[in-house]
Write a structure and sequence with these properties.
This protein is mostly helical. 59% of the residues lie in helices and 9% in strands. The two termini are 24 Å apart.
Length: 130
Amino acid sequence: MTPIAEQMQKAAEAFATFEHPTATALDYSPASLKAVDELLLEARDGMGKQQLELYASCAGAYLGEVVRRRSPVKLEWVTSPAGPALMSPKGLQLNVLGKPFKLIENGATDSLAWFAQVAQDQLSRELTNL
């Protein structure tokens, strides 16, 4: 396991096991991302800036692990100019760490659950074109 993969998996686990304000089971399922959307929207009004940035970064790692674990193709954590990202065999990069910040900024229209579904659709197409 690469150092970046280990770091992202630890951040995802920290987010999944963190005592969230609402009793939500985060089990790395696509359905759990709807709960993460809600948690992030609640947190944007209740946390200080630094705490919210750490929380959102860990939520991004959690999103990445949900996508990576359910991907039909092997995804690798890589370091890109924009920071940690997931990369597919054909070079598709998914900036999962940035997505929670967009949700916090723009609201529910930037859903993590929706992002994961679109990513899975793209990765499924990639699988059929290997």
